[in-house]
Amino acid sequence: MDLVLALAVSIGLLGGVSTYLFLTVGTIQIWIAFIAWASFYHCGGGTDGLRKSVVANVWGAIVGFVALLLIMKVAVPLPGVLWPSVVVAITAFVLVLGAKVPALGAIPASVYGYASIAGYGLLSGADIATFNLANPLICTVASMVIGALFGIVSEKFAGLMTKSA
């Protein structure tokens, strides 16, 4: 079996399994897992891609969480949406500047983590100050790590199917 067909079978089957598992658990987010799964492949796959992706995803989620905290919990008397805009400008700068540290060098993967926590944090209504699985940082990181693990499993499964042909 060629690699694209093997990946299609592997990702399709595991995509269904992961969706069932995520929707059964209920709080972790399948869409965030799929972003991390794609990030795994974007970072080159394998154990190196897994490490790069997870570290950068978590870095992005942490920086995004700081942005959420500042936007939601710090009252600054600026007109309209100026305060959130300033916070995003500063935290996006810090996010990318982190790539000067080699372990944080996968800038797109960092952006995936930042965007995922922003999306979940802003749309879920979850309390960012409560320590539980619905907390945006905990939920995003857990979902991204699980998604990246599904990425490596799908890669290995596809590899088995290409070798058996």
**Largest beta-sheet details:** none
The helix content is over 70%
User: What would you call the shape?
Assistant: globular
Strands, count: 0
Number of domains: 1
Order of helices and strands: HHHHHH
Low-pLDDT windows of residues: none
Structural class: mainly alpha
Percent of residues in beta strands?
under 5%
Report the average pLDDT across residues.
Answer: 95
Rounded to the nearest angstrom, the distance between the terminal CA atoms is 5 Å
Number of helices: 6
Rg over alpha carbons: 17 Å
Lay out the secondary structure.
Elements: H1 3-25, H2 30-42, H3 46-73, H4 82-97, H5 107-124, H6 136-163
Helix pairs in contact: 1-6, 2-3, 2-5, 2-6, 3-4, 3-5, 3-6, 5-6
What do these coordinates show?
By secondary structure, the chain is mostly helical. It has one domain. It is 76% helix and 0% strand. The chain contains six helices and no strands. α1 runs antiparallel to α6. The relative contact order is 0.23.
Condensed summary:
It is built from six helices and no strands.
For the structure shown, list the relevant keywords:
165 residues; mainly alpha; 6 helices; 76% helix
